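@channel anyone free to eyeball this complex?
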Amino acid sequence: MTAPLLSVKNLTIDYIGDTTDFRAVDDVSFDVAHGEIFGLAGESGCGKSTIAFAISRLHKPPALIRSGKILLEGKDVLDLNPVELRDFRWREVAMVFQSAMNSLNPVLRIEAQFYDVLHTHQGMNRAQARERTAEMLRLVDIPPDRMKDYPHQFSGGMRQRIVIAICLSLNPKIVVMDEPTTALDVVVQREILQRINELRRTFGFSVLFITHDLGLMVQFCDRIGIMLAGKLVEQNTAEKIYGDPQHEYTKKLWASFPSLHGEAITDGAAS
Amino acid sequence: MNDKQTAILTLDRVSKSFGRPPFTVNAAQSVSFELHAGRTLALVGESGSGKTTCARLVMREYTPNEGQLLFKGKPVATDNAKALAAYRRSVQMIFQDPFSSLNPAHTIDYHLRRPLQLHRRDLRGRQIDGAIEELLTRVKLDPKIIAHKHPHELSGGQRQRVNIARTLAVGAEVIVADEPTSMLDVSVRLGVLNLLNEMKRDMKLALLYITHDIATARYVAEDIVVMYAGQIVEWGNVNKVIDNPQHPYTRLLLSAVPDPEMRFDDPKAHLKAGDVEEIRRLSAVPQDRTIAIDQDHFIRQVASSRAA
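replying in thread with the prediction:
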């Protein structure tokens, strides 16, 4: 096997309290290969978002990384100085947040928001940025002439796609997606994830995908890690997690989903 | 929808639009459905399809532009304060967000004591304490531990249980639950849904369950209504609709539900953007004619692609 793109090693993160510390991430290790979609599943409070923030070093106090390494192509993210960090974010690791569609600036045209990123990171001028913007919008099925519109003129799904387009405009090596489609309905969710799946085949970036919807995760991811109370309790290919779950908690998670077809479930749900 | 006994609540061709022409939005177009005691009706659809408008019409937060609401067979009088109060007592709502629907400054005991004092005038002193205890036990919370706590000390699932207890405190006959589990963790969702199922069975409640998650609809409901662009496009027995969807929009909705059996790389799983747009466009066209698929399964006629 070739060297992984992202390698998280024995990562431990605490939230510092007045008297006691809360261990949010406890000795977690996983690898993400080039072009792979890796999923992290678990309930709220299990530490999956904390890991996502730590990867681009966006975690803020009281969160503290106690130990461990986050290696991107062999380089430890935790050793970067502020200047290197500014280069590293977006260019190498891009992030899509849960309410990403609300993270566009409401008083700037879409075009200007692309220019912000492209000018800062690649020194493009207006004309070059406009060209790149058109190219990126086309990728996510939005007519390029709409770049002159403001965010409120787009639907939630379109805004989410615009954020993804901005993310991809610098050709990042890995995109961290923290519940990117939770606020959207199922049809739009399917359309967006389908697009991301096609794009990663074309451009070869990796995705770290975080959600609590196991069914969706199995459809979309290559490999999946299941988290419980800060620990990574199971890690396997999507097929195995679905067809042959090993850990008791994974089985319980599956049992707590009402399925569309087949038997209605009554008990055995995770508590 | 065919009725076997008199429905508790009936919506009869109710329409609601917002804004003035030419910018009107028809949030509900000629919507009809019935709620029966001891039965759950699931209302599913994407965001913007008019689900919440229907809930607000039922709650009498909006007055319909056209059509009428029948409560136990009689139209709801708007000029009779007593009848209106009785209506508001009988029809209660559970909100989506358990974190903002309880007053952070009051204890759980207070949240249940107030409705009991206001709506159950026959209860005196100690009886109220007893009723609170009974309500909390019914929603599977320990009264000794929970009653004196404040909302911030409870988890989302526990708060939603308090909300359910609150609706029961006033003696509700109809409960409108607008996405009651969408903000809860997957592992506690089933518990809340089971509780709603139990309430419905034991207390003969009529439940309107609003959701975008069609899989949970099958779990709690007997009947289902699928809405798109303010219109009901397909309705009937929940198993018949899900196992044999006839309207193209229902099919689209069902095909997009995450299914771990089918990977995205599978060409069969591929949704074509053009097809999706076409279905959306055709389903949004107002249609009067309905087609009966079975005696308890109906669809609205689909506009032909040329006429639209």
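from a first look: The first helix of chain A runs from residue 48 to 55.
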